Amino acid sequence: MKGIPVTQCCINPSILSADFVNLEAELKRISNADAVHVDVMDNHFVPNLTIGLPVVQRIQAVSPVPLDAHLMIADADRWAPGFADAGLASVTFHAEAAIAPIKLARELRARGAKAGMALRPGTPVEPYLDMLSELDMLLIMTVEPGFGGQAFLDVTLPKIRRARKAIDGSGIGVAIQVDGGITEDTIARAAEAGANVFVAGSAVYGADDPEAAIDRLRQAGSETLRSSAE
Ligand code: DX5
Ligand code: ZN
After folding, report:
1. DSSP of 31-46, one letter per residue?
2. Could you tell me the pTM of the whole model?
3. Could you give the number of structural domains in the chain?
4. Residue range 143-194, pLDDT digits in tens
5. Among 19, 90, 93, 150, which residue has the most ligand 1 atoms within 8 Å of its CB, making it the best to mutate?
6. 171 located within any domain
7. Rounded CA separation 78/114 (Å)
8. Is 185 a catalytic residue?
């Protein structure tokens, strides 16, 4: 995900649904992924706890694919820059957890990471439209953050559409990532609305053959992106 292609279809499996005791082996099962999505939760911003920076650093050291960190943590201004320093391809903080999102996005970029900002399903995109040029990626959550395996919230589709319209209208290159409930059934709806980077946890790691699942998701997403562009 070097440049996070802004129109190309990317599939980023989430290791939240992987076997946490065998992470290195689990990473090898998704070698055809565009990036690996790493969910960091602090039990404050969301009611769940996963892994912190030391474990993320080890994943970064052994992963055959670039890392896409999704920080579901309070006080993002303080903690997110450390993840950029770890050499991750992209670091996404939540708008609701950042006091100075523009300053933080600039800091992430200055430290060599792509800057991502996430919105919970109930957070509108409009207050952030003027700062989209500070970002490489906008993550529109399609479930309430905190847990894998939840159902896709169709109520977020109009927000994806409005974000895509604003991005295309201003000519800035920002990818739109969606995260939560992405399956072979729902990916087309998200792609048609304007998303191009798709996180999938249970749909990839719950499959017998994760690489085949990635290929199927990529094909479904790409087809929709192609036909929407026509
Ligand atoms: C939820 C996480 C997601 C989660 C997605 O808070 O941010 O990345 O792993 O899992 P699925 O694809 O199962 O909804
Ligand atoms: Zn996530």
Report:
1. TT-S-EEEEEEBSSSS
2. 0.97
3. 1
4. 999 999 999 999 999 999 999 999 999 999 999 999 999 999 999 999 999 9
5. 150
6. yes
7. 17
8. no
